[in-house]
Amino acid sequence: MAEGDTVLATAVRLHEALAGQILTRTDLRVPRFATADLSGRAVREVVSRGKHLLMRTDGDVSVHSHLGMDGAWRLYSPGEGWRGRAFEVRAVLETDRHVAVGHRLRRLEVLRTSAEQDELRGLGPDVLGPDWDAAEATRRLTASPEREVGDALIDQSVMAGPGNVYRSEVCFLAGTDPRTPVGSLSDPAQLVDLMKSSMERNRAGGLRVTTDDPRRGHELWVYGRRGRPCRRCGTPIRSFMQGDGPGRVVYICPRCQASLDAPLRAEG
Questions:
Q1: Between helices 134-141 and 188-200, what is the axis angle to 10°?
Q2: Backbone torsion region of residue 68, taken as left when φ is above 0, otherwise alpha when ψ lies between -120 and 50, otherwise beta
Q3: CATH numbers and ranges of domains, the chain
Q4: pLDDT digit string, tens, across residues 199-251
Q5: How deeply is 187 buried, as exposed, middle or buried, from its count of CB atoms within 10 A (0-12, 13-18, 19+)?
Q6: How many C-beta atoms surround the C-beta of residue 120 within 10 A?
């Protein structure tokens, strides 16, 4: 699942492969930019901003992408076969040394590098970025006291980067029911600090670990563990839907997390 740590690791990998290289061929397979040709441009850098990835080239031109739930950028050698299904490819950016292929991208566009800030102006402080500001993130988190904390934690205008996995894991680490109104939290800054520390530990990408135990099947406290025993108290983990519309599945230990009396909505 592409949360801020995954996107940052992707940006680092693409930067190492492409920065300083000249694009020899580009193929953007979305209608609006299907005729765009960036060949001949030099890649200056590849950076992340929360869940957004920005590939900056000379001439004030950037390729902006968002991985969504299951998107990915993969690197290949010229002539190497690509993995996955061809119809899922959304972007091909080629240099003499590497071919970067964007699979299942939720969003892909070309924009002026100087316009990036306007495009992403709604984002809060980036948990893994140079603009991180814990005090500002806490202010944004507490701006709507009646809002459920689990919903607020994945709002990208509060903090850029966190997603559904970190929502469940951070609420567990804080001993907080995700349905708790933000205004009822005794220490909202604690959740911000836990989000920062949890994501920092995983900024290199790879297997996401919040338990300090990287063994397969031991890496997370509650996420994806419905019906299995809590690693701390043995109580079966429960799940419920949170958010507008169909919502997203959130996981909780009903004993460790000061559960509220509100009934859990059945998982979809």
A1: 130
A2: left
A3: 4-119 (3.20.190.10), 134-252 (1.10.8.50)
A4: 999 999 999 999 999 999 999 999 999 999 999 999 999 999 998 877 799 99
A5: exposed
A6: 16
